[in-house]
Specification:
Length: 390
Amino acid sequence: MKILVASHTYIVDLNRDKFRELAQLAPDIEVTVVVPERWQPGGVQKKTIVSEPLDEGNFHIVPVPNFSQNQQGLLTFKWGIVSLLRRFKPDIIHVEQGAKGLAYAQLITLNKLLGLKAKNTFFTWWNIPYTLKWPVSWLEAYNLGNTHGAIPGNKDGADILRDRGYKGPIEILPQLGVNETLFRPQEQTELRAKYGIAADEFTIGFIGRFVEEKGLLTLARALEGMADRRWKCVLLGRGPLREQLETWVADRGWRDRVLFVESVPHDEVYRYINLLDTMVLPSETTYKLKTLSSVGWKEQFGHVLIEAMACKVPLVGSDSGEIPYVIDEAGLTFPEGDADKLRQCLLRYLDDPDFARERAELGYTRAMEKYTNRAIAQQQLDFYRQVLAA
């Protein structure tokens, strides 16, 4: 089976592990991942990434010159994609740019024009209902009408695809798994000493963007009601709320209790997760955010949750989007925006360490069975086989 994947996501090497694993699952599998030659990720990364080719036997990374260097919905590839398709002759073309992506329409069209007869599949995170105007409505209809299999990253995404008229096979899977050799329980004595975290201090952590929709202001209100307890809070990330949060910390004299950590490389995040007694993801649904074709945002998955599970850290999450389905029995959930309920969850762990350890063990088992890169790769391969057999 020859699988061609196209996505800007795989300009980052750590993100490639799922397809590396998939390429090892059977001797007849070959995976070629097409990435944009130049890409500007934005957010915490300001520089343009220039992709390099990679050849690992039956797993390949092929940079192709591209149009649009920072808008994933507008990403398309230049002439080099044609010669690659002719040479590789894939059985599966899998594009991870969403149902409305121009790159997906481009690959569908080239599949037809070149007579490849490959099956078209795509991945999407989108999990909020939307309406479209022409020509985006036509673009989506064209893509869905030529799709042989869809992989939404969450349950709501699957429901939306059905509402949009897609009737083909669906498999709900996250885009990326967790690297269990990196994200695992391990003591961080030096890092604890660096940040002055004592062994008896209950350590609460948040990792992500400092924006309102991530629920940081709700977390702040929850912590205000715990001022008499012994805890520290690690906030790892950056974003527009940083200044407001720093003012909140200073007003309460909590500079030694709330620790700000500037964004660190993803392959070092495990060190900070292993400082924690609980990981909190208090995301909140919003309709303030707008894109070219949709309005709103709610938590699409929460990748940091499965990384914390793999490190045996118990979870607290809001009920926004996919969070309750990811956590399941591996932690506690609360109504989004409810600081009192969030505080109750934190105190439950603080006051009952045995309960916290039990949730952590359940989370670890869940991560190893369901969310490693190999586990996701096997499920994705099974889906491809289903699509090819249809």
